[in-house]
Design a protein that fits this description.
The complex is a heterodimer of chains A (about 325) and B (about 290). Chain A is mainly alpha-helical. Helix content of chain A is about 70%, strand content about 5%. The termini of chain B are far apart. Classes of the chains: A mainly alpha (about 325), B mainly alpha (about 290).
Chain lengths: ~325, ~290
């Protein structure tokens, strides 16, 4: 029995770590949550105040004069980049999974998806490096001018095209990082379906494409939704790659897809140094409030995804 | 027209069939294009990193410490190995034990809770872990930028991966083996150490290696816990910042110096190469295991 208790103690550490992180973050961010109020999400000024003045009392908290914390521009950047990334990643991932599972010989499909899964392991910061030295020059010199000329009548795609660091670039990098999730999960789910289903479809006179999209795919809707949700959650919380290619906008709402942005996760890295300059600590506590929000977002997206996937089967990682 | 034939669907015309075939062909073309686009982008990234890195690679870089924005990467290579290695040891000790509990005794409420929360922990953005590590370990415990703070933060990041992969590996061990061991009079710990861990070792090892690969590529959790140092680690667990490869990539590519860019490329090459190697090793381990029933 002692052995079971010992193992139970270690198992208990996992929930304890997560609860400790959540409790600690909320406790630490509490003065900021109190000071910033609900406006935190709707205001688009992040101003740590006049660092050369004496601290003042406002709303019962000690802050530097003029300090105001709002993250509307971060909410816009985070949601915008993740949604556009998903807009690209979903059809790409779906198409690639269908092709790998149903159109090519099993061995070849296995080999290619092994390759795709390996690439999912490329570190975020390497994607960022590639973004800076290859993707951004390429997009801003060759792709964005053409895109802006063709779609000049659509306000969100029209000029100015900026420097290449921005919303669309971040989305493209994020898309490449999250596609392997969707492809790998969906391909496994499609492959797990019985051959009889395919044979029955073919014998009814359906083409292979119709079998794939009308018979096999509908059965895997929940797997697809779960994988997409996980990928979305990952895109929302991605830090380094976005930090490197987003342009790190401050207090700036994107005007078009080429505008510089910043996301909640990237902002914590970008601003921690300057937030530490605030002697009252309110700036760091406001960053903690952003971390709390990220935690809540990941809880929601993962909760939904696990619920969807859990409905299907005892899932793998 | 009789009753029977009216209930049958109309016989498809050859035009209708042709229309469907063309639609299918277009569908496959689009799906194939998606795969090709994806593969081209992925191969491009890998080739770019490998060519750029290989071009700047020299023996000098591997054996010298960083000096300003030049010099070598010895300190960072050692630091990455130290940080990820010690995080792996910490995390594997806790994670394998927790995975054992989940697979063998985890049908109760604690098991369900642990399983769900470890799945949630996988999704927590790594910068959140880094921020908490900074405020608690670096500032509150006054460890400052240090190996201990970085390794513990990384260990938390790796933990849920190891827990779940250990559980899955153990679940694949046939229950007959457990029953035979218990029938021979083994106690819990004997069953675990002499039977289960041996049978599931390749699966557990694969999980630990994959977690190691993930941790080696992380930057955000280390920025404010491990810091950066131009020197190789001198043996202090706390109060001494540690260099690591991913920091070089992020920080040095923004410097306006050729030597800094060269270091960033080499660091990217080394870390990507290492991670791919660990991944391959992990797959090889699971594929070559005699007990694998994949």
């Amino acid at each position: 029995m002692w052995f079971r208790r010992l193992l139970a103690f270690f198992a208990l550490l996992v929930p304890l770590v997560l609860l400790a992180i959540a409790a600690f973050l909320v406790f630490y961010a509490w003065p900021a949550i109190h000071y910033n109020g609900l406006d935190f999400l709707w205001r688009d000024t992040w101003n740590i105040g006049n660092q050369y003045a004496n601290p003042v009392q406002r709303h019962g908290e000690t802050v530097m004069p003029g300090a105001q914390f709002g993250i509307l521009f971060l909410v816009a950047g985070t949601l915008g980049s993740a949604l556009i990334a998903l807009l690209f990643a979903f059809p790409l991932g779906l198409g690639a999974a269908l092709f790998l599972s149903e159109a090519v010989p099993h061995r070849f499909g296995h080999f290619v998806s092994f390759f795709v899964e390996l690439l999912a392991g490329i570190p975020s910061v390497v994607f960022g490096l590639w973004g800076i030295v290859f993707l951004i020059p390429f997009l801003s010199h060759h792709v964005f001018p053409i895109l802006a000329r063709i779609f000049h009548f659509i306000p969100f795609l029209a000029r100015p095209i900026g420097s290449g660091y921005g919303l669309l670039t971040s989305s493209l990098v994020l898309c490449l990082m999250i596609v392997p999730f969707i492809t790998a999960t969906l391909r496994d789910a499609l492959r797990s379906q019985s051959t009889e289903m395919r044979e029955a479809g073919i014998s009814l006179g359906a083409t292979r494409f119709e079998v794939a999209t009308r018979i096999l795919l509908p059965g895997q809707k929940t797997a697809l939704a779960g994988a997409t949700m996980l990928a979305f959650g990952r895109a929302l919380g991605e830090t380094m790659a976005v930090l490197m290619v987003s342009g790190n906008a401050l207090n700036y709402l994107p005007h078009n897809v080429y505008s510089p942005i910043s996301t909640m996760a990237a902002f914590i890295v970008a601003q921690l140094d300057s937030a530490l300059a605030d002697p009252t600590g309110m700036a760091v506590r406001s960053l903690a409030e952003i971390a709390v929000l990220l935690l809540v977002i990941s809880l929601i997206t993962n909760g939904i995804a696990r619920f969807l996937i859990g409905m299907l089967k005892e899932h793998t990682l | 027209m009789s009753q029977a034939t009216r209930d049958l669907p109309p016989r498809p015309s050859s035009g209708w069939i042709r229309y469907r075939r063309i639609k299918s062909a277009i569908g496959w073309f689009l799906a194939g294009t998606a795969l090709v686009a994806l593969s081209v982008a992925m191969v491009q990234i890998l080739l770019y990193v490998f060519l750029k890195g290989f071009h700047s690679l020299s023996p000098k870089i591997l054996v010298e410490n960083t000096v300003g924005v030049g010099g070598g990467l010895k300190n960072a290579i050692l630091g990455t190995a130290l940080l990820s290695g010690s995080a792996m040891i910490l995390s594997a000790l806790v994670g394998v034990a927790a995975g054992l509990y989940l697979s063998e005794f985890g049908e109760g409420r604690l098991g369900t809770l642990t399983r769900f929360l470890s799945d949630v922990l996988v999704g927590v953005p790594s910068i959140v872990l880094g921020f908490v590590g900074y405020v608690t370990l670096t500032v509150w415990l006054r460890w400052r930028f240090s190996l201990a703070a970085g390794a513990i933060t990384l260990a938390v990041l790796m933990l849920p991966y190891i827990v779940r992969s250990t559980e899955l590996a153990l679940r694949r061990v046939a229950s007959g083996i457990r029953e035979s061991a218990y029938a021979l009079g083994c106690r819990d710990h004997q069953v675990v150490f002499k039977v289960l861990l041996k049978a599931a070792a390749p699966g557990i090892g694969t999980g630990i290696l994959l977690a190691l690969a993930i941790s080696a590529g992380e930057t955000a959790p280390l920025l404010y816990t491990a810091g950066w140092s131009n020197y190789s680690w001198s043996g202090h667990l706390i109060h001494e910042p540690v260099a690591y490869l991913t920091y070089v990539i992020w920080s040095f590519i923004g410097e306006p110096f050729h030597s800094a860019h060269a270091l960033a490329y080499v660091a990217a090459f080394l870390i990507t190469f290492m991670i791919l190697l660990i991944n391959l090793l992990a797959r090889f381990l699971i594929a070559s295991s005699p007990h694998s029933n994949r």
